[in-house]
Design brief:
The protein is an alpha/beta fold and 397 residues long. The protein has helices spanning 7-10, 16-29, 48-59, 72-86, 100-112, 128-135, 155-161, 184-197, 225-230, 255-268, 274-285, 289-310, 331-337, 342-353, 377-394; strands spanning 35-36, 95-98, 118-123, 139-144, 166-172, 200-204, 231-236, 249-252, 325-326, 355-356, 358-359, 369-372. It holds the Pfam family Aminotran_1_2.
Length: 397
Amino acid sequence: MKKLLANRVKTLTPSSTLAITAKAKELKEQGIDVIGLGAGEPDFNTPRNILDAAIDSMEKGLTKYTPAGGLPVLKKAIIDKLQRDNNLTYKPNEVIVGVGAKHILYTLFQVILNEGDEVIIPIPYWVSYPEQVKLAGGVPVYVEGTREQGYKITADQLRAAVTEKTKAVIINSPSNPSGMIYSRDELAELAAVAEEKDILIVSDEIYEKLVYNGIEHYSIAQLSDALKARTIVVNGVAKSHSMTGWRIGYAAGDADIIKPMTDLASHSTSNATTTAQYATVEAYNGPQDTVEEMRQAFESRLEKIYPQISAIPGFNVLKPQGAFYLLPDVAEAMAHTGYDSVDAFAADILTEANVAVIPGSGFGAPTTMRLSYATSLELLEEAVRRIDAFVKSKWQD
């Protein structure tokens, strides 16, 4: 039956994060004590006030179709949030609500890319960026942000990568998988290149609320009206409000881009789940204390677990500034334990040490692995102990 498949899906790479999570779940079902450091979601339940708002909407019979681009009341809540948190002003026709930020990104690439258009993707990258670009007929162009650069790209690198076919550049800050954040000055330098070369900016800000140690998050769209006009801000409530399964994301940007995104959504999803939309209204309009409580919990875990991971032989890791991931470079550890592939290294950590980690090959960084600290400190410390023992048991000078 493979010969009947469309060419666009034949080169797709399965999500490494979901694959590892599935394998870990399989081992757990076999009774094996596996600690999962793979999942990209908070380990807290959705706050009570949001759950209550969802229940209330259902009991009131608010369970029908909504406009394809989102409930007007939710668009207003998003607009108010962007004004309040980011000092950005949008109109309702400049906002679209979708089935998670992932769906928003997919829809965006579908409407801005023609066959052969290029999108610049900094390395390391979230696993779905290249696949979504390819599905839209685009060509991913990779630019490496090295560990020495804090896993961020420079303006000179961006300028060198732009060609006549370049349509957009993706900026993910705070970053999945590195947890690093672009400063205001760094964003301004990248923005100058985008303006000079007349390319769009896709600003993925889904981890915006998870920033630590006094670091401030900036949206590149904040820097000027001209930049706001060429930037599509992508965000949602998955990480900030622990609502990953509710699948609500949004984009804010030029109406000439948002309208075709909305038209496409009308033929694909009709609308994001109605109940989840009402829940998101409460997420943005209601109390925000739980958002800060979760941020503080993640920061506390980071402060305690970072030194322990740094102490594992051959693990060289920058201290992240946001999100809830650590991205150690394990090239040295692999060299001393006989591994020439991070995928094999991670696979054996799972089967022998019973800890699920994500190999960095899926993020374009094949000497790294991603460790999520979105789990309890007790489990994190036990996971580090197991990985440390695994590495030391195989270490050869």
